[in-house]
Amino acid sequence: MAKFIVPKEIFHGLGSLENLKEIKGKKAVVVTGGSSVKKNGSLGNTIAYLKEANIESAVFEGVEADPSIETVLRGAEFFKQEQPDVIIGLGGCSAIDAAKAMWVYYEYPDSKLEDLAAPFAVKPLRNKAVFVAIPSTSGTGTEVTGLSVITDREKGTKYPIVSHELTPDIAIIDGDLCKSMPKNVTANTGLDALSHGVEAYVSNIADRYNDALAKDAISLVFKNLPTVVENPDNTEVRQAMHDASCMAGMAFTNVWLGIVHSMSHQVGGTFGVPHGCANAILMPNVIRYNASATDKYNDLAALFGKKTAEDFATEVEKLRTQVGVAPSFKEAGVDEKAWEEKLDTMVENALNDPCTLFNPKKPTASEIKAIYRACFNGVAYAE
């Protein structure tokens, strides 16, 4: 028996931000990152639409990339002061992930990050507020997922908080918000969306509901990502990528992810490699590793008129090259000595990451280490 959980309402299409005028509430806190949502007008439009809905608003800004627990705690304190009944995550994945974690601490102030990172440890939410997610990047799908990734910088570790309680109540998928994304961010986030579709499709609890979303999201990324990287003002293609990200998010939040993400979380937390870039480097070799445990990569190869997992891994590598993402962690700027010093810790943390539970093949420490080393040097993994 299985269940399928998504936000209560998903508004999608160019101009769909306007649906904020329909929401109910008295006070909203809008959580954002840097200045991009100000420059592109989406923050101003959000506040204006809330005003039309007779909702007062306050803004918590300055969420950094890979949001830290310190930022989350500051945000929770801001919530305590403002007492919102609507929380809005506006911007990239970092802003929305941070807002989700702030929501947890707002409702449960005594929470501990390490405890929240245990599978499904989040207590029932919506005692004080509902959650609206409005992404301005097309990659994570966090607007429809029960996932928030928070970094403990002292430990150099990313903690994924996994619970359907974190699934937003409302998601707004408006490609107009993505027009100001730089080329490298467009490429990295697009490949992140691809990794979500791929890992959801081969999850060890995958089902036909999620397979349909995952497979179509994968197809949309291959068809549209090269175009939007080269032609960022093409709003129709922007919307297609935004839809792909959301669809992949709906798939993976129900069947979860695999070791691409378990391993990527460690590389990002330790070396600051952008998440989508890390996923793109890891994905082809994880496909090669998992191929002996599932034949579902063959289905994905068939999208290109091909037959094998190796064919599909090669197509991912081609797309990665086409959009200008590094093929190895060495070329992404990671120091080899530091890599080897941290490798055992990354392996241990990857094995303990909740995403590992849903990988189609149960890895050993030595296998994880071999994949890491192959990806550091940009060579094909072979058993």
Automatic annotation (TrEMBL):
GO molecular function, one term: alcohol dehydrogenase (NAD+) activity
Pfam families recorded: ADH_Fe_C, Fe-ADH
Keywords: Oxidoreductase
Domain of life the protein comes from: Bacteria
InterPro entries (alphabetical): ADH_Fe/GldA, ADH_Fe_C, ADH_Fe_CS, Alcohol_dehydrogenase_Fe, NADPH_BDH
Positions of the Alcohol dehydrogenase iron-type/glycerol dehydrogenase GldA domain: 7-174
Family as reported in the entry's similarity comment: Belongs to the iron-containing alcohol dehydrogenase family.
Protein name: Iron-containing alcohol dehydrogenase
